Amino acid sequence: MELNEKQLNLLKMLPGIDHIIELSKTEPSFFNVPRSVLLLSIRKTVGKLRNEILDVSHGLNEKDLTDSMVIEKIKDVVNKAMTPNLKQVINATGVVIHTNLGRSILAADALANLDLIAGNYSNLEFDLEKGERGLRYTAVEELLCELSGAEAAMAVNNNAAAVLLCLETIARNKSVIVSRGELVEIGGSFRIPDIIAKSGAILKEVGTTNRTRFQDYAGAIENETGLLLKVHTSNYSIVGFTENVNLKELVSLGSKHNIPVMEDLGSGTFIDFSAYGLTKEPTVQDSVSAGADIVTFSGDKLLGGPQAGIIVGKKDILDKIKKNPLTRALRIDKLTLAALESTLRLYRDPEKAVQLIPTLLMLTIPVDLIKKRAAKLIRLLTGIKNSALSVKPVDLNSKAGGGSLPLIDLPSKCIAMKIAGMSANFIERSMRENIPPIIGRIEDDNYIMDIRTVKEDELIIIKDAVTAILRRN
Ligand SMILES: *Cc1c(COP(=O)(O)O)cnc(C)c1O
């Protein structure tokens, strides 16, 4: 590569590593930085500057290479290295169960128990009555049975693990009958056909995408059939000319042929959402009382707890699952278990649960309350008194997310924000780069914040972020 005179000059100017190490010794903001981090940051910065000199499109100049400029750049790299990668964000998307933003946030009780169990020894696998080894599932099994009406229960790492484990235990080397209308894909590459293949079972599809009848299932049963599987189509809906077989009918078919029936509910809830003006999602109790042998669902979707996969059902099958060596690889950890137990305890009083479990509260909150909070944010923002800023309330819909309540739009109050001289993309990015990051969306060239998922104490943080962005204008 032919370098021009300016490039050669700049390369000569680029400070040496040793020189910068010397300089950094007197820089107070580096005093508490581990030496390894500082060295790595210096090397990274100098390497990056060298590349920028070699690629003229960066338009680097002499003034970019002074000692103080280089130290400033190193400070940025050091800062980034010293702040945790996983950080709190403000969810202004209105999507309550946002998989990319961590799905459900935990109830206060769950957080407190998490803290207690994580910071101390516990009876995780110790039976305090007998003084001998116990099972970790004991913490939630009884509660899950009480809430669902099932004979037995356990919890594993997540629902994907729960489905895999059940299939592997019940149907390995056997066929699993599933309707073509229920061969779902969930985000993050969970596909029912793939998980069946991985479990060692053989998928037997029946019916068509839009219509599957009882006779389709009945006609597909053979000697090798190990399981009838029903999957809740949690993130889409087939409408129009449709037909499907309900769980009760499948259970009757299964019991006639002595074949177990499993339902993967996906989201899974103990609450009847129709009582709150939302569409009813199938509840775990419904599936159990319809006679399913096994029901699986997530801990962090509509349930509003930590990431977990919950299995409830008949005792003889659960006994087999608990003995499956795969269980050890998919087991729930103690922190999750602590948070899950506390979350489940709240469901004993469903009305309280809806108030105390943030996911449920955000899904069922009356739009008037969102409106009040939005009005408060508008007051805070107009209080900045900057003529470049314009904010107005808009009626838009929020989504439940997490593959639940797929078809319903929840009427919400949003704030549409514009700043003269800034594109919506620029605003979106600046808000995302705030500490803590604020995640909104763009619609019709407006920056939109949906207040359904914004907490009261986060309003002031949003105001400060907007103030800072306006200052850069
Ligand atoms: C979400 C979902 C899963 C996967 O659950 P995770 O807890 O995310 O592993 C499986 N099946 C269905 C139907 C789902 O909706």
From TrEMBL:
Reactions accelerated catalytically: L-seryl-tRNA(Sec) + selenophosphate + H(+) = L-selenocysteinyl-tRNA(Sec) + phosphate
Domain of life: Bacteria
EC number assigned by the record: 2.9.1.1
Pathway noted in the entry: Aminoacyl-tRNA biosynthesis; selenocysteinyl-tRNA(Sec) biosynthesis; selenocysteinyl-tRNA(Sec) from L-seryl-tRNA(Sec) (bacterial route): step 1/1
Gene3D superfamilies, per database record: 3.90.1150.180, Type I PLP-dependent aspartate aminotransferase-like (Major domain) (3.40.640.10)
Keywords, comma-separated and alphabetical: Cytoplasm, Protein biosynthesis, Pyridoxal phosphate, Selenium, Transferase
GO BP: any one term: conversion of seryl-tRNAsec to selenocys-tRNAsec
Localization in the cell: Cytoplasm
Cellular compartments per GO CC: cytoplasm
Cofactor entry: pyridoxal 5'-phosphate
Family note: Belongs to the SelA family.
Protein name: L-seryl-tRNA(Sec) selenium transferase
Biological source species: uncultured Desulfobacterium sp
